[in-house]
Amino acid sequence: MKHRILLSIIVLGLMLPLFAQVNGDLTQFAEKKVLRVWGTHYQRGYAQGYYLAPQIKEVFQDFFWTMFCFSNQPHYDMLWGFYMQNFVPDTRMNSEAQGMIDGMQAAGTPLYHAGLGRDISYDDLLLMNAVYDLVDVQGKNGETPQVELGCASLSSWGNATTADPLLSGSSVITRFLDVSPNSAFINNPLIVVHYPAETDEQSWANFTMPGFFGAITAISASNVFASINTGTEHAATVTSNLSPILFDIRRGIERIDFDESGASHPLDIRASIALNNNLSANMVHKLWESGGTVYSSVIERKNNAIANRLSTQNGSLPTHHLAVTNHFRAITNNTCCSRYANIQDSLWTNAQVDAKRQWRVLAGAAGLESNLLAVQFIPSTGAIIWSTATLSEPAFSRPGFTLSTEYLFTNTVSNSDAVAALPEAKLSLYPNPISAGNRLSVKSSEALQKIEVYNIKGQSISSYTYNAKETEQNLPAFAPDTPKGIYLVRATTHKGNAYTHKIVLK
């Protein structure tokens, strides 16, 4: 515990000068949010906390505290004590969690939690990110988790995709994340795109929920895809040197070359997971393609045992298909649940897939009503389809937004997929920098409904609402006595989209 307190003091001392800057940019498309964050881990955490403070509290309260911890403080304290005693601290993740707490405070969001009787701390966020590992702790203490963590995924390439003129042998992966229905998750679909300042890290995107900064479904700038699937065989006997599986996946995909092989590769994730022990059973589905070379495998992890399953090992699927549901097939005896058997039946009936058929196969064979998130990725083109659930519809049955790695990592939108085009975030501010007393011109590709200006503490400087559907507005954004510095301009359109941009008052 002392090393955690010491780390907090060090982080606060080093980072206090940076409180005046929010290294983030939030774009909202209806209910979906894309948050870009850059800088050090602390700065990226600060931006997440600043932009997502109410949503982080909602996820913590409605999902972790209420559903997972039964709104029971002794149970929560038991999990917290186990985490503090047995998990190895990661200074980068600790720093990011502390930044998130500081960003929430800077945004003016109260951190007090009535159930805990205190403010939420960075340790509470770390604990929430260990939720996949804590299932085993609950079981050993006679508690039946109220949260169902499922998942299914299928990757295909080579002979499996040669008949499709668009894929022509290149790879595609579809991934379903299944979690017990929870309004906090359903109301807050989120992608966080990281642009690290650390020289040994690379840009990567996390399809996640507010407050979860470990990797759940992730894509790196090197085209490495990874997603977690929960296993069913826990019963961990080794409870020392533990690490949250979500942080292990993140290290492997965020570090440029974790295993020091000379290149960024899915095996970096295996090396990261193998570094420590994990408490619960998990499987990580990975896919990577570069220059026509495809690598796909499933890491099976049970406590301190690990296996890397390839498509030729214990899969019982046609050539160049690799599937995973929630049972081990390499680390222990092959288990074929009904969902995996359904995937087998579909693919042996017709082994050829294109991107749309792969989605349909997985939906028909393994789709659950608790499907919270569905993501499909084609590494050769960077095309991504992202679909999220409503309270009445699972994600796989709903239209998807189309994105691309180009959009995520270079801020350019691709609308090439016909499933559902993502609207372009076109917004311009002029002049920028601006002098106090001058009028600000705000132009958008959509009719502007509301323009708000905030300081970096989240305090409103000015606000204007427009009934006329005009795409350009000129406004006196800053009074003559407004202090110089960085401000945020948030523009909401009549279509319900919201864009936030930084502006400098000189």
The 3D shape can be described as globular
Low-confidence segments, given as residue ranges, are 1-20, 412-425
Alpha plus pi helix count: 12
Kindly report the name of the CATH homologous superfamily of the largest domain. Answer: Penicillin V Acylase, Chain A
CATH class of the largest domain: Alpha Beta
N-to-C CA distance: 45 Å
In what order do the strands lie side by side in the largest sheet? 13-12-11-10-9-8-7-2-1-24-23-20-21
Helicity, as a percent range = 25-40%
CATH topology of the largest domain: Penicillin V Acylase, Chain A
Number of strands: 24
What is the architecture of the largest domain at the second tier of CATH?
Answer: 4-Layer Sandwich
Major β-sheet, in short? Answer: 13 strands, mixed
Strand content: 25-35%
Total number of distinct structural domains: 3
Give structural attributes.
single chain; 506 residues; alpha+beta; Penicillin V Acylase, Chain A; Immunoglobulin-like; 3 domains; 13-stranded mixed β-sheet; 6-stranded antiparallel β-sheet; 24 strands; 28% helix; 28% strand; disordered N terminus
Plain-language structure description:
- The structure is a single chain.
- With 506 residues, the chain is α+β, with helices and mostly antiparallel strands.
- It folds into 3 domains: 2-23 and 39-140, no CATH class; 152-410, 4-Layer Sandwich (Penicillin V Acylase, Chain A), CATH 3.60.60; 427-505, Immunoglobulin-like (Sandwich).
- The chain has 12 helices and 24 strands.
- It has helices at 2-15, 41-68, 73-86, 91-106, 122-128, 131-140, 183-186, 245-254, 267-274, 338-349, 355-366, 405-410; strands at 24-29, 32-39, 112-113, 118-119, 152-156, 172-178, 190-196, 204-208, 217-220, 225-230, 282-290, 293-302, 305-309, 321-324, 371-378, 383-388, 401-404, 427-430, 440-444, 448-455, 460-465, 472-475, 485-493, 498-505.
- The strands form 4 sheets. A 13-stranded mixed beta sheet has the order 13-12-11-10-9-8-7-2-1-24-23-20-21. It has a 6-stranded antiparallel beta sheet with strand order 14-5-6-15-16-17.
- A hairpin with a 4-residue loop joins strand 3 (112-113) and strand 4 (118-119).
- The model is unreliable at 1-20 and 412-425 (pLDDT under 50).
